């Protein structure tokens, strides 16, 4: 039997965290290629350190002239990302940092497995396992610790960029320890918030005075009590931040990107990968299905695993765990999810309309638990399969 009373902790990092700077640049490159050609192939990795950004990986367009043209735009794409995040530091400035573009054409051997799968349909771009998860403990059907850790940093970023909190700088991390009673989140036992700031003379108390109103604004009423421990900039001064303070790399925040450790992870990162890569698209599909299972009332909590082999279109397995929170048998849900959605790589892309430049916005504050957007962004957060799932049972 699962525990009912416990404390669970998750962390988030801001868009200015070094790894998230890299995720943002990689996804911006992806969006640029998808805007040119919806079937573009992109696997873009970014590395950032003091005064330098290095971009590498594989890209492919059917039009070689267009590919050459887009290669010339990569540097400006990176500078635009850094500028929007807000870096104008002496040793990491959007105008002056050195940017090296090492992108090259996609491997023909990888492309052949995707373009003509062994079962005569488009094959998966790689082998692997992907997990999706949903829980009814928040309105977004996300685990509370990661959902509110993200919300804190998004609000601080809004305040920084609007000028409300001019002493804040882009690099930040949050961590929430959430108290569960009878399986439901009811409060916060501790808050950790480390944020880059403008002046060396600012103390932890000074920074807490800036950030506390925004934290209280986004957390549910009553979750902060006199017993809640606050740890704001616990090491003291945090002026040197971003890639100047610590090197960044695409794909290093996979738990931040997903469920904050509350659910399994298959190990594949998302950013910089076009949707033929099932690391990304099938993880989105698994979240979509798990969220619809919970929204349909078939379970209060649901984990879904999908598995794939390179060059093979159909998933090798579909696994559903409702964690004992529903009356429907897991194997019945497994059959239903396979019936209501085509889980081949192309089927996922078409159902969720993933061949669009919608990825840069996913690079920070989580890929899940966001509102579906009019242009198709976060389409995997829709709950439009509820009736189909019920009818399939």
Which tags fit this structure?
alpha+beta; single chain; 4-stranded mixed sheet; 11 helices
Strand content: 15-25%
pLDDT < 50 runs, ≥5 residues: 116-120
Average pLDDT, rounded to a whole number, is 94
| Radius of gyration computed on alpha carbons | 21 Å
Structural class: alpha+beta
The N- to C-terminal Cα distance equals 26 Å
What does this structure look like?
This protein has 393 residues and is α+β, with helices and mostly antiparallel strands. Helix content is 33%, strand content 24%. The chain contains eleven helices and 13 strands. The protein has helices spanning 18-36, 64-71, 74-85, 108-115, 144-162, 204-218, 254-257, 278-295, 330-340, 345-352, 386-392, and strands spanning 6-13, 41-49, 52-60, 88-89, 92-93, 98-105, 128-135, 168-181, 184-197, 229-232, 248-249, 301-308, 317-321. Strand 9, helix 6 (204-218) and strand 10 form a beta-alpha-beta unit. The radius of gyration is 21 Å and the shape is flat. The two termini are 26 Å apart.
Summarize the structure.
This protein has 11 helices and 13 strands.
Topology:
Elements: E1 6-13, H1 18-36, E2 41-49, E3 52-60, H2 64-71, H3 74-85, E4 88-89, E5 92-93, E6 98-105, H4 108-115, E7 128-135, H5 144-162, E8 168-181, E9 184-197, H6 204-218, E10 229-232, E11 248-249, H7 254-257, H8 278-295, E12 301-308, E13 317-321, H9 330-340, H10 345-352, H11 386-392
Parallel strand pairs: 3-6, 9-10
Antiparallel strand pairs: 1-8, 2-3, 2-11, 4-5, 7-12, 8-9, 12-13
Helix pairs in contact: 1-3, 5-6, 8-10, 9-11
């Amino acid at each position: 039997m699962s525990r009912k009373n416990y404390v669970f902790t998750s962390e988030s990092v801001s868009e200015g965290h070094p790894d998230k700077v890299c995720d943002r640049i990689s996804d911006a490159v992806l969006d640029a290629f998808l805007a040119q050609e919806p079937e573009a192939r992109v696997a873009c990795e970014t590395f950032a350190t003091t005064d330098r950004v290095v971009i590498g990986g594989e890209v492919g367009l059917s039009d070689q002239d267009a590919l050459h043209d887009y290669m010339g735009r990569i540097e400006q794409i990176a500078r635009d990302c850094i500028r929007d995040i807000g870096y104008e530091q002496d040793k990491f400035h959007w105008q002056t940092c050195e940017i090296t573009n090492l992108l090259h054409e996609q491997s023909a051997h990888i492309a052949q497995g995707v373009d003509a799968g062994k079962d005569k349909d488009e094959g998966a771009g790689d082998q692997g396992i992907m997990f999706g998860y949903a829980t009814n403990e928040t309105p977004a059907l996300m685990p509370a610790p990661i959902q509110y850790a993200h919300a804190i940093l998004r609000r601080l970023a809004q305040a920084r960029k609007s000028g409300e909190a001019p002493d804040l700088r882009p690099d930040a991390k949050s961590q929430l320890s959430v108290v569960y009673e009878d399986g439901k989140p009811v409060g916060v036992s501790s808050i950790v918030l480390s944020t880059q700031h403008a002046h060396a003379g600012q103390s932890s108390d000074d920074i807490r005075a800036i950030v506390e109103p925004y934290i209280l604004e986004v957390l549910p009423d009553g979750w902060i009590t006199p017993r809640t421990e606050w740890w704001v900039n616990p090491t003291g001064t945090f002026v040197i931040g971003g890639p100047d303070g610590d090197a960044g790399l695409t794909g290093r925040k996979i738990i931040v990107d997903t469920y904050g450790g509350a659910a399994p992870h298959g190990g594949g990162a998302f950013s910089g990968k076009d949707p033929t890569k099932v690391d990304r698209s099938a993880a989105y599909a698994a979240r979509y299905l798990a969220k619809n299972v919970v929204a349909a009332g078939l379970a209060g909590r649901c984990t879904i695993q999908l598995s794939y082999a390179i060059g093979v279109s159909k998933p090798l397995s579909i696994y559903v765990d409702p964690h004992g929170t529903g009356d429907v048998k897991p194997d019945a849900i497994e059959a239903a999810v396979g019936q209501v959605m085509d889980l081949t790589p192309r089927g996922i892309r078409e159902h969720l309309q993933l061949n669009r430049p919608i990825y840069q916005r996913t690079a920070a504050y989580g890929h899940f638990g966001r509102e579906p957007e009019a242009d198709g962004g976060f389409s995997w957060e829709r709950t439009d399969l509820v009736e189909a799932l019920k009818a399939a049972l």
